[in-house]
Amino acid sequence: MTAEPGGLGVGASPRRKEDARFLHGRGRFVADITRPGMLEVAFLRSPIAHARLLAVTKPAGQEKRVFTIADLDGIGTIRANSALPGFRVSEQPALAKDKVRHVGEAIAACVAESRAAAEDLAAICVLDYEALPAVSDMRTACSPTAPLLHESWSMNAFLETRRDDDVSGLDAIAAAKVTRTLRTSRQCMAPIEGRGVLAEWDPRLEQMIVTTSTQMPHVTKSGLADCLGLDEGQVRIVSPDVGGGFGYKGILLPEEIVCASLAIRLGRPVRWLEDRFEQLTAANCREHHYVITAWADRAGKLLGVECDAIVDAGAYSSYPFGACLEAAQIGSILPGPYILPLLRCHTVSACTNKPPILPYRGVARTGVCYAMETTLDALARQLGIMPQAIRLANLVPATAMPYRNLVGKVFDSGDYPESLRRAVAAIDVDKIRARQAAGETVGFGLATFCEQGAHGTSVYHAWGIPFVPGFEQAYARLAPDGVLELRVGVHSHGQGLETTLAQVAHEILGIHPDQVRVVHGDTALTPYSTGTWGSRAMVMAGGAVAEACRQLAERVAAIGAALMQVSGADVRVADGKVQRTDTDGFVTIADVARTWYRTPQNLPPGVNKGGLEVTAGYRPDPDTGTHSYACHAVVARVDTETGAVVLEDYVVVEDGGKLVNPMIVDGQVMGGLAQGIGTALYEEMPYDTEGQPLAATLADYLLPGTTDVPDVRLDHMETLSPWTTFGQKGIGESGAIGPPAAIVNAINDALAGLGAEVMDLPASPSRVLAAIQAARAVKA
Amino acid sequence: MSRISISLTVNGERTEVETEPREHLADLLRGRLMLTGTHVGCEHGVCGACTVEIDGVPARSCITYAGSCDGASVRTIEGFGDDTVMAALREAFMQEHALQCGYCTPGMLVAARDIVLRLPEADEARVREELAGNLCRCTGYRGIVRAVLGVLAARRPRSGHV
Amino acid sequence: MKPAVFSYARPKSWSDAVKLVASGARAGAGTQSLGPLLNLRLAQPDMIADLRHLPDYAGVVVSGGVLRIGAGTTHAAIEDGAVPGRTGEIMAGVARRIAYRPVRNRGTIGGSLAHADPAADWVAVLPALGGTAIALGLRGERRVPLAGFVTGIFETALASDELLRAVEVPTLPAGVRWGHWKFCRKVGEFSKVTACVLSVPGTAPRAVLAALDRPPLVIEDASALLDDTEAEAARIVSAFPELGEWRRAVAQTALRKAVAAVKQP
What we know:
The complex is a heterotrimer.
Chain A: H1 19-23, E1 39-45, E2 51-57, E3 66-67, E4 99-100, E5 106-112, H2 115-124, E6 126-131, E7 157-164, H3 170-173, E8 176-183, E9 186-188, E10 196-202, E11 207-212, H4 217-228, E12 235-238, H5 254-266, E13 270-273, H6 276-282, E14 284-286, E15 288-296, E16 302-312, H7 327-333, E17 343-350, H8 365-383, H9 387-392, E18 403-404, E19 410-411, H10 416-426, H11 429-437, E20 442-453, H12 457-460, E21 472-478, E22 484-488, H13 497-509, E23 516-519, H14 537-563, E24 571-574, E25 577-580, E26 586-588, H15 589-598, E27 613-618, E28 626-638, E29 645-655, H16 662-682, E30 713-717, H17 734-737, H18 739-751, H19 765-779
Helix pairs in contact in A: 8-18, 13-14, 14-15, 16-18
Chain B: E1 4-10, E2 13-19, H1 25-32, E3 51-54, E4 57-60, E5 73-75, H2 84-95, H3 105-118, H4 124-130, H5 142-155
Parallel strand pairs in B: 1-5
Antiparallel strand pairs in B: 1-2, 3-4, 3-5
Chain C: E1 7-9, H1 14-22, E2 26-28, H2 34-39, E3 47-50, E4 60-63, E5 66-70, H3 75-79, H4 85-95, H5 101-104, H6 109-115, H7 121-129, E6 132-137, E7 140-145, E8 150-152, E9 155-156, E10 163-170, E11 177-183, E12 193-199, E13 206-210, E14 217-219, H8 223-227, H9 229-237, H10 245-263
Parallel strand pairs in C: 1-3, 2-3
Antiparallel strand pairs in C: 4-5, 5-10, 6-7, 6-10, 8-9, 11-12, 12-13, 13-14
Helix pairs in contact in C: 4-7, 9-10
């Protein structure tokens, strides 16, 4: 990192410290790490969605290289409980026991000198099973005739939630009422790097060292220790460079447990690298189904919303977020950034013969935003008002901030209507209307939403899932040469925290970011953190690093003042120095560090014995979360011959509070947006009625490429959050939330003249054309 | 014949490797030659993370097998040394924030360098078309496309006189 | 996933190559189509006979109004102009849109055609250009019209002891009209529907409808399609009820667009 014209502290966009290693191929990912004597693992996986497992016949002469659950006695099942009333707990074995509940479920682990040889073993294992009827459709999963996945349960649902505001009177008073049945597809998070695990047992330390591609090393450690029956000190998680996480890499994997157990049993390092086939067929997310009704008055003001939602949560409740992460949040997210007087909402987390649903950037909000925003547009069409008008009629105004909505969410700050106005102003709406009048199927669409991030104890304690985020800690140490070492429990896997946390330290201490080393991704080296998830790292770790640096600055100032023989009140720490406020005199922070370590005889009496090492904690107060928000505005053109959609223009007006590094924020928004475009137009993991996944390669599961993501116009507002260190807000997921809603609204605006409307995601050519053809059939 | 011995030149150095015919070049480079800068993303030729140069042109190392590399010359992300185009691309990638997690980056750079050299007149649409075979899940491509366009522009002779 | 075990041979002569194939080896060239199947263990050959180093495997020879294109000619070479004249211009345009450049650098015209994925580009385009596949077997060369070369999904007219040696296509006069339209949701993706129309002055126009999970439909005399495009396209597509509504609609669009390109002034 060199000196940048824009500075190096909070608000600057210096180049990233992490770039050089990746640009030269020196990144170090799990798959890059080997150990002498290491064995590779391939899993024998279920070819069938639901079956009673009768026997696994191991290849003759190779029995000791194949492990079933019977060979791994003593390891526990994965249990991700929840305190939400009525929650049904699933027991997910690390390897299938008695039953298999989804295609791809691991049944046996095969070990060999190479992955190919391990796959050879898996290929000749013989599986004996009794097929059971599969539950492949969340809408019928809870019917009384559906076969039960977990036989002790009364129905195939992890949880039902209800909110029962009385909306029965709204029909009588509403000027408009619309009901829509909407669906989002099952998706795959699809980081380009798959998961990977390298487990090794250190007999000297009696410690299991697991190098694994995770974004939440400390939580993984707790889960793994629990399942292995080890105390937490016996498990060390190392998370090296991670090739994209997006939520998927927060999950404790059965494969992690199996590899660790095998490493103990075999006395050799054991590695498993997830391949794309395994990832696509077993790492799913999203898949919502909504029946939603909304009522509005003549001006478009919302009177109430009723929603019946089902989320296909798959076969198990995964650790730590659990099976209800999506469905149980629908009711609380539905009001979005709007003032909503009444909400009636029923949700089901359905249990089906599919892989467990896992968190994916935008968690729940992408689907909920899609449901709410497309419904709003339908209301606007019915009322004959513009999409921006119905939103402006309902958005929480800046004057109401902080605002507590009807479900108790507290919006910290911002001017939601202004973001909308700016986005609309950036699009030439009149021109689009003129093109429509000329017969073009072009349209514009909006989505407004807010993103709760960095929400903490006060929100999560009620969930009762395996972890509740509390105070975030950061460790800061000045080394004898004056280099600052920061250690954090969050993990950086693309977010650039090695840079932005160094910027925070620079802001407080004035040390050049080149002289700041950020250490993360090792539970043995870093303070506890629940990790990087929920758009929290820059708020929580940023706040903790700032606090640690402040405390360090006090100690440095005291020593520096003594070295200059002045009072502590007469110095300040800035630009890497302890400076006298009355003269030009100074000592450098490096001088102070040298004194502490090398010439302690020069330290003043009464010096803080804690020295130049500080662990400081931080939590925003209140910790109900920051709310960044955005308006996405899209111009889309529809080819009525093929159903193909072209994004002509895309505008985002975003408010992430103080942008610690605007370049990185833009990158986060753009990256999320590409994923949102995938959700909107491309990505779909279909299952057949037998529960077989139908997209096993990236030729079938389409990820957006360079030609599919437009050069988006990003505009920022910077309303500081009153509750965070620098006013920053969590913004990591935002980009992925808005696109499906905005894009489908644009499509439906384009198709409005034809009377056609797209309901289901992705808005693939076949769905769009089907909508057009259905509308033509109605007219004919 | 479950094992073969092949000879290939990797990043300018001739090397003999004993391997299995079924091993693909990406695994060979990563596992046997410890050149881990080449990444495996999908192993079916779609994502482009494994893109390396074989005999001077970019190719997918995940669907190119050991046997066919006997006698070949391979260049990986570790082998571009002082190459001026690669240096310019690296600089531009930093400037434009064209990478986040860095996993797709080596393959992206190898593909991008080929575009810069092969298509000096490429415009944005062409760059996007040519890069469509390299998937990135982090950046949304904006920085990548801008970086490549920037390098292309900088290499063009200054216009202004006829 | 990693491939199942196979052995590797690099024949030095065509007769050696044919013998290997006759004894059960799978012919391999750039392995850009075979590779994914190997890695998924959907193809498990005992041996791969690597054709890439055979004499004259790649390259184009012009003689007497015919272009003989070695089976090992890469898509990239064709994209870059290895095939001369108007035929080459047409083929370069097709080649440029096959998968991605790094794939085109190793993938070959013969490999792609012999692989016979119904969605592949040469499978659709070569029958439209008209010409002949040159098969090489133990008894020598055999000529197979390209219009009938692909017989099923991943099935060709090649006998189990034959290789694809080359394809021959005509050197088309400058005045030919060419229409080619394919639908891909993403750049480089396999086509969902491809239509080609070739109109050589003085002869009946030829059309191909392909990438419909079956061998390409070759219409040797497509005059009716050019005369009454809407009705004829609908009639052609109605023969494929097994395709969903969307696929049929896009197939009709494909024919319409290919015809429009041919008719374009």
